Amino acid sequence: MGNYVIRGGRVIDPAAGLDRPLDLVIEGGRLRALAEPGTVAPPDGFKVIDAAGLVVAPGFIDLHVHLREPGHEHKETIATGTGAAARGGFTTVCAMPNTDPPIDTPERVAFVYERAREAGVVRVLPIACVSRGQAGRELADLVELAAAGAFGFSDDGRPVHDSRLMRRALEYGLLTGRPVIDHCEEPALAEGASVNEGPVAGRLGLRGMPAAAEEIPVARNIALAELTGGWVHLAHLSTRGSVELVRAAKGRGVRVTAEVCPHHLTLTDRWLLGAEGNACPPVGAIPIPETLGPYDTRTKVNPPLRTWSDCLALIEAVRDGTIDVIATDHAPHHWLDKACEYGQAAFGISGLETAFGLLMSLVHAGLLDLPTLIARLTAGPGRILEQAGFQVPYTFRPGEPVDLVVLDPDATWEVRPEEFVSLGKNTPLEGVTLRGRVILTIFSGEVVFDGRQA
After folding, report:
1. What is the pLDDT of residue 226?
2. What's domain 59-395's superfamily in CATH?
3. What is the pTM of this model?
4. Which end of the chain is more exposed for a tag (fewer CB within 10 A), N or C?
């Protein structure tokens, strides 16, 4: 493991309440000291990294990614997905179980850990299925899956529609200490929908998904968590109504945590119109690129891009802590999965490598402060993992292992999907200039991404 002195950076560590210039001394993968700038002479053999004018933070943690292995290695592998994570500043990622076969047995949980040790460059924590085969009919062996190392349980894109099954899952969650993670979608309202229900859907002639399709299962899941005392984690919230339900539930002491994706904070359904959507404000935190045309399937994501009113409600929920976590829902696809008409295209955006730059658009617009943003990428998910019994670095503690990221909040760069480490090049941000860049990622004391060499 490497030995480093990282000098002069603005250290933002929300869990420790730090936001000031400091030097970090890393020895053997552990934090040896946090010191006032310029007060530490580099020991022999230590590499010095000049972080003056930059931000140093704990490594980002993503509770929701799709690494596609096993079974869909043409879309992504654990090797390429973790490489993309490192490039995006993420040092821990939680892998969803919608693989082929799905992660519904202890042996398949063990497979993900084994492949991550062999090929991964950052930490991978598997999420296991709620139901056998993600079929929604009978529970998987949740106790055994937890014992094998599953962080939580989710049927991911297949919501747990059966309320009795969801209740039982939450009760087993009490036994294991793990969350049940639900994709909140009412199938009868969402069937056949590709986009947000509203004027844009009408203009394009596409079937829309109403906000109620998300908010009904959000309300049900909260009610079941309140009934059982279990822990429900709500994936990728996208509507104002969902935020209001979660805020009220937390006020009553319900054990509910929630996440939001970068694209749901910054992009709106106006992006479906392509560049002409810029003439129909508000369009979101960044303008639509001129190269994006209407019906571009790279804008298709589930839940769909909503309205700017929804974005603002989600941003406020990030600010006040109603939403605990920002997670990418990194969903890489082969180009063929998007090379078709809009209604037939796969849902999903490849998001690990653009997350920080995209989120910084909110900071530069004055909608979010940088320490809060970093908190939702570090302390928020780190504490959730801790509550589930997983100890991963999310704060700087002398004597303990170090994961960190060095950031340049003002560096501009153009999104070029062909340069992604991820096999998934599916992003509507192609050609967009983002302001905010990951410079360096250190995992377990080793440099796993060095943007200074790019």
Report:
1. 98
2. Metal-dependent hydrolases (3.20.20.140)
3. 0.97
4. C
